[in-house]
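I am hoping you can look over what I have pasted underneath with an eye to the fold:
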Amino acid sequence: MFGKYRRMIGLVLVLTTVLGLLVGVARAQDEAVLVIGWEQEPDVLGDGSSSTFSQLLGDFYSRKAYGWNGAYQVYSDMMAEIPSIENGMVTTNEAGNTVVTHKLKEGLLWSDGEAVTADDCLFGHKLFSDTSTGSIFRSDYPSVVESLEKVDDLTIVQTFNTVYPDFLGSDNITVMPQCRYPEHVLQPLMDANGGTIDGLSFFTTGEGWVGFGPYTLESWTKGDNITMVANPNWTGQQPAFGRVILKFILESAQMQNALDTGEIDVAFNWQNDMLEGYQAIEGVEIWNTGSPYADALWFNIDEDGNNHPALRDVNVRKAIIHAIDRANITTAIAGEGVPVPGAFDSSVWWPEGLEILGYDVALANQLLDEAGWVDSNGDGLRDKDGLNLILKFFTTPRQSRIDYQLAIQANLQEVGIGTQLFQVPGPAVLFASLTNLGIMASSDYDLAIYASSNDPVSPNVDPSSFSCAGIPSPENPASGNFSHYCDPAFDELIPQIASTLDPAARLALKHQSVELMNSANFWAGLYVRVTWYAVRTDRVNTEGVKDGLGTLASNWFQQIEYWQPAG
């Protein structure tokens, strides 16, 4: 008897599955569906996570007040106008602090049809300024925003506690008004949850989700996918894809196979070493976008450290940079089309005529000869005053960095410079503090390969990385100026850049800082950490995709509503 029932139940399940598939096919025929491979399942929705793959979701259903496009130009999804000194929306109060007026666009709606108002911005201010409201990525907001006041239903005034030129935020710095949280939904939920957003199913499962974006959440099937549908109350560009499915595929080879078989339409953020495999898939277009993050060769220019004395001569450092064929090495290791950064700062901050050192073996040899480093005994190795030019060269045990080490070693050998190669763990050894005898902090290296990021949105300079005071010392053992770059003229510019409100005057100061830092030649870019995309051209119009991609940490789908189906 039980066996009979089991067979009947099994038949019902099979029929239900088949019907579900048929319904899915019919639905796909009625609307354009976009399936994106997602390499990491989000832990929560919204800003309660530091995970990139949680934050990326905001591009679909939770836009910010302002954003930055691929050219690092500010634009607005929520506000009617970009505040500036020129339009009178940025002023200074009697205390000398920055005051900014923000005006919401008229007619903005949440996905449930309720109006977006200044009260939502006040609610967001409470979330970001009061840590008792729960865990959220607040960045600098609580430490620099003094107050937020409502003028009318669409206008708010934000006052900072200091002069603050980056009042719209910068790369990963959140200070803009937080108007993307629906007060009418979240406040009652918080009231019933002890006043905190922590643990709310709104974020942990998406239950009752209400947001502001071109899409809204339809379902979150744990372990499989997140499905979103076009938001009927979105007042911006109407999405051409009526449904977007983020398919969780955690293994890189499986992701590539899913694109090949047509299970997904888009794969992104895959590593350089997978380029050849993606190129082998028919009907797929591949490209990359840059980022502020890059691997580079760093020099230890400490005047009194354990480094090689040759590196204290800027012309020797220039010779080393000229001796390295960075473009061809990067093409061979990182892939065709991966850019080599010309200077540490983003090109948006470069003054006109900034000198960028290129590959020139003859000039490298000339500079070394003029600096007195010559091969006095004919053994192929340069020396001076009885000291051989052999450099201690460190990096982490990442294969691409080891490959770079070997290629650079070969280039330097051609001009008579020897290297000793070391690969050591990053946080525990290479980057450990001075107290913990970190190699970099102890100034016990000559050359090193590691990654860092610049800020293409704000011209501010990180004093812990590039000021005299940022050099590791017993008083500041955790400081991060590992190259020991110290220029009093550069140090004077750091606070001026941070406190100059006028954009033109601030840019002029930044140009000076870029010139000074670049002329010191203690940094040589190797490759930009690009984001790779592979898109099926039979499903997606790739030109529409390329036009709207961002290049910061988590804005790669910031104009998803402009994506178009193929044909």
Notes: Residues 68-187 form a domain with the Dipeptide-binding Protein; domain 1 fold (CATH 3.90.76.10). Confidence is low (pLDDT under 50) at residues 1-28.
